[in-house]
Design goal:
Strand order of the largest sheet: 1-2
Strand content: under 5%
Largest sheet: 2 strands, antiparallel
CATH superfamily of the largest domain: Hypothetical protein, domain 2
Number of domains: 2
Order of helices and strands: HEEHHHHHHHHHHH
Amino acid sequence: MTSGDGVGKTGKVKTIYKQLLKAYGYQGWWPVTVSKEAGPKYFPGDYSHPRNEKEAWEIIVGAILTQNTSWKNVEKAIVNLINSKCLDLECISKMKTEKLAKLIKPSGYYNQKANRLKSLAKYLEKWPSLEAFFDRPVEEIRKELLAIKGIGKETADSILLYAGKKPIFVVDAYTRRIFHRLGLTNESLDYDDIRKLVESELSKAKNKREIFNEFHALLVEHAKRHCRKKPICKDCPLAGICHASKT
């Protein structure tokens, strides 16, 4: 595709991924708690997590809580749930909304998020297990998640990729910013256009799920270090292919 289609030259996605991985290394997303004392922990280069339903549910909770806030605030909320012995689907489903909101208060928008968590928990309770829920075609699961109030495409895809181990790419505001500055996309492309662009460029990879996982995390790291609202172009690992750095 050409830039006139709103998309950069074919192959550029792979170049971005390789250069970011070389610059920052493996990120270890999504963090999960393997011990109460340590709290949520990253596992760079280890894509075996979630290893059980407890870890999968923690990722799902984190995907809801991280909406419009920093991960540090999410960790505080998750630790509160762990200390209250309520980081599980059944407990959140049965807990009073007011109490749940108090526990997740550090994550912000806690009343909304408490309602979203409870709605999702009640929906997932209909399934015999999270494994059974995720053991279906991606688009079928995605459609159901998007039908739950408060779950948008980014949250649904985060749940599918990180908790369900499904090969789907997550697009966030950082991805949009970076791709636009690199001349890879334009403002007319919607969420799914960008998602499908990345997935098609990397479709031949044997380990697509791991690459989508890593790429999303690397883009977030790059946005924090260099591609901020006001970009820091000095020493940027993508400077050689970035339009913004040359203006």
